[in-house]
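Summary of Year 1 activities. Much of the first year was spent building the evaluation harness for sequence design. The harness presents a backbone, in tokenized form, and records the residue chosen at every position. We chose the following record to illustrate the format because it has been used consistently in internal testing since the harness was completed.
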């Protein structure tokens, strides 16, 4: 599968060559299902456009495009350094990169935010020009917290990922 055709707006937004290279490395190493499966079978937490073949990619791309939009507004974008803007857009694009785990489960894994965060860290360690620890941890924590208030297991018995602004112990 030629993955170079995906996430072009993200690629065009990134201003730093190290981040751009890391993003291309992530895009190429992401599971094929990121580009081919539905984001949801029920639309419970996703829009109808995210259903069907390629829905997970459409969802991930639209989250990244929303991040680009918000960062373009002075009231938000002015609060972040350039590396943080690059990191936020990449994380937005890759936040569901492990939604079905490593082997393409038939169902969304409730631990997928943590799996994606761990994957970002692992990919950074394999990348030829790794990002500094502080920066990759920023990305990992954003990724781990992307489920927001829905951070409990599907049965609701236990908290399985952090809420935004709360560091996840595994990554510290």
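For this record, the design step produced the sequence shown next.
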């Amino acid at each position: 599968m030629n993955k170079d055709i995906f996430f072009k707006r993200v690629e065009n937004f990134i201003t730093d060559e190290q981040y751009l290279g890391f993003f291309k490395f992530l895009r190429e190493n992401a599971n094929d299902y990121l580009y081919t499966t539905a984001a949801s079978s029920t639309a419970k937490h996703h829009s109808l456009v995210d259903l069907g073949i390629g829905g997970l990619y459409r969802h991930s791309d639209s989250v990244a495009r929303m991040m680009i939009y918000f960062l373009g507004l002075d009231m938000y974008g002015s609060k972040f350094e350039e590396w943080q803007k690059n990191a936020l857009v990449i994380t937005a694009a890759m936040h569901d990169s492990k939604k079905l785990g490593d082997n393409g489960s038939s169902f969304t894994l409730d631990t997928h935010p943590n799996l994606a965060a761990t994957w970002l860290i692992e990919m950074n360690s394999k990348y030829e020009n790794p990002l500094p620890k502080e920066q990759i941890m920023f990305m990992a924590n954003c990724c781990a917290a992307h489920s927001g208030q829905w951070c409990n297991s599907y049965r609701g018995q236990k908290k399985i990922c952090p809420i935004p602004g709360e560091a996840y112990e595994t990554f510290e």
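The chain has a mean pLDDT of 86. Quantitative recovery figures across the full test set are reported in Table 2.
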